[in-house]
Each structure stands twice: as C-alpha cells, then as structure tokens.
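Q: Joint fold for the lines below.
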Amino acid sequence: MDYYKESLKLHAEHKGKIAVSSKVPLNNKDDLSTAYTPGVAEPCKEIHKDPKQVYTYTSKGNTVAVISDGSAVLGLGNIGGKAAIPVMEGKAVLFKSFADIDAIPICLETQDTEEIINIAKNISPTFGGINLEDISAPRCFEIERRLQELVDIPVFHDDQHGTAIIVSAAVINALKVVNKNISDVKIVVNGAGSAGNAIVNMLLSIGVKNIIVCDRAGILCREDNTLSPHMMALAEVTNKELLRGNLEDAVKGRDLFIGVSAPKVLTEKMVSSMAKDPVIFAMANPEPEIMPDLAKKAGARVVGTGRSDFPNQINNVLAFPGVFKGALKVRAKRITEAMKVAAAYAVANVIKEDDLNEDNIIPSPFNRNVAEKVAEAVGKAWEEEVRK
Amino acid sequence: MDYYKESLKLHAEHKGKIAVSSKVPLNNKDDLSTAYTPGVAEPCKEIHKDPKQVYTYTSKGNTVAVISDGSAVLGLGNIGGKAAIPVMEGKAVLFKSFADIDAIPICLETQDTEEIINIAKNISPTFGGINLEDISAPRCFEIERRLQELVDIPVFHDDQHGTAIIVSAAVINALKVVNKNISDVKIVVNGAGSAGNAIVNMLLSIGVKNIIVCDRAGILCREDNTLSPHMMALAEVTNKELLRGNLEDAVKGRDLFIGVSAPKVLTEKMVSSMAKDPVIFAMANPEPEIMPDLAKKAGARVVGTGRSDFPNQINNVLAFPGVFKGALKVRAKRITEAMKVAAAYAVANVIKEDDLNEDNIIPSPFNRNVAEKVAEAVGKAWEEEVRK
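A: Joint structure:
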C-alpha cells in the first residue's frame, strides 16, 4: 500500500479528519431554550460564582488543545502552522480513538516564543489540557516550562515526553530480555534535540546511571564550553567519565543505543563494537539509524524502530492518550516526573513476563488496553503526589 | 418548563454540549499509516507547496472559531471567558444543527483589545471563519475591523450583524403588512450598543432614510459634542433633523420602534404617540422593552420580541449559520454589506406573500430551509462582488 498516495486521497475525500458533534438534542423550542438562551444563563452564572464548576457544566474537562507552530513537523522541518494541520488533526483522531478525548488542533501563524506562550495561556479557559506538538528545540523547552507556570492545567510536549515514556518502557522490557540491571547498563543516546533531551532525563528518573549523549558535533561533555545552554544542561547530567569523540567512539562498549537522529548513521561495525547482547532503538523516521536486519546481523539482540513494518514499534500513541486521560480524570494541574515514570511502567507491564521476548518488548499501538492502564497509573501517581 | 433548572441538569448530565468526532476510520495499521504517519506527510507537503490546498486536505473550510472574552454575555454582563463557555458551546451546537458547520469555542482569559486581535489572528490557520461573540462595545467594533484587515477569512461579530440581518428581515416584512414604503418610514432605534449600531447601518443599507437613535442619555445628535466617538459616528448618519430629547420625544410620530435596550422602557403612552399602524420590535432579553399584549393594546400593529413564547421571534439563529455556510462555500474573504443585505432578504422571502401577516413576519428558528436559502444568497452576493 502506498501510504503517501492513499493519505492524499483520504484527506481530500473527507476534507480533513475531524468534525464537531453535539452531545445534546436540538429538535424543538424546549431543547433550544435549555441548550441555549434563556436557560444557558444558569450554568454561566454557576461558573461565574464558582469557577471550578466549569468542569461540571462544560466540555473543558475532556478537551485538549493540540497546539503547534509547525516549526518541526515530522521529518519535514519548519513547514509552518497551515501545513502542520493534517498532523494535528491526525493527533486529534488518535486522542479520540484511543482515549475518547476531544482534541482541538490549534495551528499558529506565529513562531515567536513569547507570543506562543501568551496565546496558549489566553485560550486556556476552554481546555482541560494542552498538548504541545512539533515545536522546534530549544524553544519548546522554554515554552513548555513557562506556559506550565502560567496555567493550572497540564501542559505536555508530546515530542519530548511521549517519546521518553515509550522509550523508557522499551528499555525496561528490553533489559529483562537481555537480563541486565537498569542501574548497571551503559546507554548512548544519539540526537540532542527535544526527544533526546527528554529521553535522557526520564532514563535518569527510572534509575539509569551511565548515559552519554552524542550529537552531530560528537559526544556532549561539560568541559566543552562551546555547547549551547540546553546541550550543556544535558552534558551536566550525563557523561561522568568526561568522554570526548564521535559516534563511533560513543557506542563502544555500550549496552544500549537509542537513536533519535538521522537515517543510516549507525553502521554494522559500530554495533559489533558494543557490549554483549546490545539493544538498538533506531527511531529516525521514516528511515532508521540502522535497518533491523543489518543490526541483527551485526549482533544486536533486541531492535526497535518507529516503524510499523518491523517488530517493537516505539510509537507515542501508546503514551499520550492515556497520559491525558489519567491527568484529566484526576484534574491534575501538571504532568509530573512521577506520572511519566508511572506511565512508562504501565506500558511495559502490559506485556506479561511469559510473552516477553526480543521481538515483543512493547505492546502494539492497537492494543486498546494500554491507554486505560496508563490512565490509571498516571492518575494514581498524581493523587499520591498531592497527598504528600 | 423551568428552562434554568433544566439547563443546569442538561449541562451537568453531558458535561458540556460538544465533542470532537473523527471523519476517518482507525482500525488497523493501514488506517493509522494513512491518517497519521508516515502518510500524513504528503498532505502536509502539498499544503506547504501551495497554501490554498489547506482547503482540500484539512477541515479548515468547514470550521469556525467562536471567540469570546466573556465581556458582554447575554444579559449577564462581564462574566469572563470561563463563565462564557456554555454560551459558546451552545453557539457551536447551533452551527452544527442548522448548517453542519464545525464550530470551536475559544474563550479567552484576556479582555485586552490588542491581545484579542493578536490571538485571533495567530490561531486563524486552523479556521475558515471567525465568529466574534459577546464582546462589549465599543471594543467589539475595533476588534472586528482590525482583525478583518489582518486575516483572509471572514470575521463576523454576530451580536452586531446577526441581529441586524434578522431585524432588517423583520422590518422588510412588517412594512409589507402595514403597507408602508421603506424609503418613507421613520424609525427610532433605542440602544446604541453593538447591536443598535449594526442595525442602524444595515437599515440605511436597505434604503431607510429617516432614523433616530436613542440611548440612556437621550436622542443622539451630531451637535452634541459630549458624544463618544462611536456614538458620534452613529449620530452623523442619523437624525438629519437634529432632534434632541428623551425616548418619549423620540418615539413621537415614528413608524417603527426597535429596542435593543432594557426591560420596560417603552410605555403604552409612548406607543400611542407613534404614527398610524406602529411596528414594535422589543428585543431586550429576557424581558422586552414592552410586553406584546400591552403594545398591542396601545395600538401596535406588529410586535416582535427575542422570545420564543410570543409570535415573531427575532432570533440570530436564522442568520449566522447560513451566513457562514454561504461564505465558507465560496471561500469569501470577508462578509460584505451586500452579503448581509442578501441574507436579510433571503430570510424575509422565506415567508410567502400569502402567509405573511402581523403574527408571521419572520420564519420560525426551526425552519430548516432558512440556513440553506441564506447561504445561497450570501454566496451569490460575494461572487457578484468579486466579479465586479
């Protein structure tokens, strides 16, 4: 199936992918007078008296804004807000299909950090959560952090945290397959963009001790004072041995390679230089850092990619629907580190010990149990944190 | 039926009134790969190459943002963005039900004119039109005018123009019933807010020559240099005779009274001072300027209100769904005066000459023909203007 051709056809046929539907009847004068004037004045007054009631009388509690400025869309780069709409509508379809959440694409004409923060803050009354999407690094870090300080609903940059949650789940299960300890393994992350950054921080949260990060210019090291502020932040929490060098140097003796970088950058030779039973997550899209068959030939024990045509597809759709579902249910004010860790373990635990093997470390995106399990775990984690 | 109590129940039961639905299937790997990655890259690329294609491959062309800052909601006043959500969701339900348009409520945290313009402009890529709602005068005038200069999709402040279209339709048919000429009649408009302002301008467009406007401080007259800029603008196109005085003076000898003001301000004595066969549109909500039975007793020939429990309900729902449907269909870049006039005549003409009488000058809000007729007329009017 030619997905590109079929996708054009599908989009043109339906003129986009989402619609609005009404949850109430509107067939006669009484319907009109309760759903709209004069009756509608009453829920308005109740919310005006007690703003919390907005969750009782409006759709806010189940509605998520999917906000993008189109600055880093898929592998396409900075194509702008208008051209990003098909992706954001796709995201809305996934939210609906996997978690029954009503998601609204908001694609922006501006790419200015201050404006994006201000706009997202000011449109927040209608929404129960904000999913930031396809916003380029390093702007995405500041936008997420400062926006979260301004609003009392969860803000979640999926390209960072969704990816980090699923990678962490995959790491947890892959280590069971190769029988290694999370606190012992040496990991190399290739790519220091928004996903790489979040993956590193989350791996540290789940107990990984030894990580190095590699970017186009080589291994990030805190002694390199040419690093940008966000690269330096990454260098400071990784590479305790102060290693320097290129990717070839970086992979030597490592137990896991995690690629969020570019096609074909990992060679068979590099794979064979890794520790025993190496695990490779090659997530560049659509073409991975190394093709799974080559990685296996070079000795990789477990291989995962972002693609649906190979085993172990590392796909965000396993995370964000359940994360928001859980957060909305308990009306969490933000997505904490503990909630993300809980989500990762929930995804990992969907695969029962007996079913776990090198080609089955992560559930299929169509496993409809996942979102529910993730939601439960995320909600519980928030409630435990609040109780503290 | 207690609409207030029922409305609270309805809103709490459904937790709001709108949801998002998917127009495409999502049951297997092929569905996921065409609706989302990797296939979705293709419509993105096409739109990036040719931005007009956003209308082919996304929902933009059928999606309207209903934007409010909650500064002038129903008769409730400035209750803010959050408390305004039930009204905006109601509006979305009406858009869907009457014109199959997907409307998205966007309720704002800010009431700053510059910010509202900037936000609406910057979120416009996703939308095919912008319905401004319940924004207080005089800010609403500037917001609408300046926003329309910045975007290439129609901007329509419904409280102004929707009301003006329906009042104009009611005037057209009421004058047929009392057998008077549009160019001869004398009209008094009571209330110089956003609706009053738009009504005056539209009545001038359909050929009314003699209008005076009254506000709390009395008849607007260009010789009064205490008037605010927008009141002065109104005074300059009305009251050629330079009349001064209060409402009692204003109604004397007038053929039509149009009230967009406050309950009970029009007395029976005032009605009896009007010209022969007076027409009264008393649209204050929920309690009109004069109750219909009192107006009739005092000699009114035709009476209309905003209420559904009396004949001749002057209700915006007859206008905005069709106006947007027509504008979206022809991809109009704005809503011109000619389009609004065409909409008014389309609404008026739904009542056939034989059915026209003093209790039937305006179609019922549930007449499902109206939106279609309005859409046709509005689309045609735009195409005629473009052709010029």
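Q: Anything notable?
A: Chain B touches chain A through 100 residues (CB under 8 Å). The mean pLDDT of chain B is 97.
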